[in-house]
Amino acid sequence: MFDDLPTDPTNKNRQFTGAVDRISPTDGIQGWALDTQNPSAGIELQVWCGGFILTSTRTGLPRPDISAAIKAESKSGFIVSWQSFDSAYVQQLLAGREHEPVHILAPAGKGALVYACDPLDLSSLYLLIAAAKAQEGRATGGARPAISQAATLVTPAASVHFDTMTGSLTIAAREPGEG
Fold this sequence. Notes:
Blueprint: E1 16-24, E2 28-35, E3 44-49, E4 52-58, H1 64-70, E5 77-80, H2 87-93, E6 101-106, E7 113-121, H3 122-140, E8 150-154, E9 158-163, E10 168-173
Antiparallel strand pairs: 1-2, 2-5, 3-4, 3-6, 6-7, 8-9, 9-10
């Protein structure tokens, strides 16, 4: 019943399965996770990098595609919004960890399943969080985060450019070996 699910191929644990479907510059990290022994149960998830927990969330969003694949009702979807991260904490972790990949652990604290959030690394994550908080500040008239008027970040995985004045955000995945 679970063999047809579009799961992370590196997953060796068969009790938990899932995947990161999309990293959206506006909405956050989107995907799904479920316990194959109890598909209707929600799962606590943690986002971490380099051994540090950055934020957490729970599954609970409808995923008709997953429900159809397992032939049972499942609210296995999740979104980790950029607003759920503490940007100051992520900024503190940057030194020496800029290019460490970001992962999602399911279930939280048990280390049963890890999803890679490719091409997201810690420095790209920080820029996305700052961009989202700047957009939020602009919409509410609040303060903007302390980043320069325009920032470009090039990592081994992605090139990210954010202009705080216009609110424009561009993310481009980089091919391996691209200079």
